[in-house]
Design brief:
260 residues; three-stranded antiparallel β-sheet; 10 helices; 5 strands
């Protein structure tokens, strides 16, 4: 987990510094695009990287970057509350998920991380609360997040939110932990068991993970009630990252097999 967090800070460190409203917008876009391209690698970081990837000096520098980025995120949220920029709640789930994960890392790796941790968990609370319930093709309870028009589902965006929620689960306790677990299990069911036709969905989806020539890849999601099951690189990268985390949290062999 620490390797994951520090590796992400190494990528995001280049955006630290003095911040204007315009820079806040540009850096938000940067976080979203950078996070997607590295997500699958970071999810497997404990396997791919040795335990000690940075020396003490590098860790100190990266922790400094992390502190600055966390402060920037808090400043951004205050600017949104003051009406200077749009609220994070109105940005894509991928952006919100990446910001939440950075705050959770700040909560673990910085000296005064309590306020960062609580801000990251606040985002996770919102993810869990906003999840929409569905019935999977097997009749189980599933869950997803609508993106864009009501009923539309972008799987890459959904999985980014779920990855952040899975990280938040590690730091949560009590009823909060229970709520997170239930939301994560519902999303895993939706990802692997699809959804029944109805409530705007025009056809039953048995699973978002494809078989045959494109076996292992994930489809794109739902648009105007139509399931889009052509393979998507973004959905596949984020979906696998989520399932890797779920396999560690739940010890469910189905999650592990799907990730592999």
């Amino acid at each position: 987990d620490r390797v994951h967090a520090v590796a992400e800070v190494a990528v995001l460190g280049c955006i630290s510094g003095r911040i204007s409203a315009k820079e806040i917008r540009l850096r938000t876009i940067f976080i979203r695009s950078t996070g997607l391209s590295l997500l699958a690698i970071l999810a497997l970081a404990p396997v791919l990287f040795p335990a000690k990837i940075f020396d003490k000096a590098a860790k100190k520098q990266l922790t400094g970057y992390l502190e600055e980025i966390c402060q920037w995120i808090l400043a951004r949220e205050q600017a949104a509350r003051d009406g200077q920029i749009q609220s994070t709640a109105n940005t894509p789930l991928s952006c919100q998920g990446n910001l939440a994960r950075v705050m959770l890392a700040g909560g673990e790796l910085t000296k005064d991380g309590a306020k960062y941790l609580e801000e990251g968990l606040r985002w996770c609370d919102a993810f869990a609360e906003r999840q929409q319930r569905v019935v999977t093709s097997l009749g189980n309870e599933g869950g997803c997040w609508f993106t864009g028009a009501p009923g539309d589902v972008d799987l890459s965006e959904n999985s980014m939110a779920a990855v952040a929620l899975a990280r938040g689960f590690v730091y949560s306790d009590g009823n909060r932990k229970k709520t997170y677990r239930q939301a994560l299990v519902r999303y895993a069911a939706f990802l692997l068991e699809g959804a029944r036709a109805g409530n705007g969905v025009q056809a039953t989806i048995t699973s978002w993970q494809l078989q045959g020539e494109d076996g292992g890849a994930f489809g794109s999601g739902i648009q105007k009630g139509v399931p889009l099951q052509k393979p998507s690189s973004a959905s596949t990268a984020t979906g696998i990252a989520f399932l890797v985390q779920m396999s560690a949290l739940s010890r469910d062999q189905n999650h592990r097999s799907a990730a592999l």
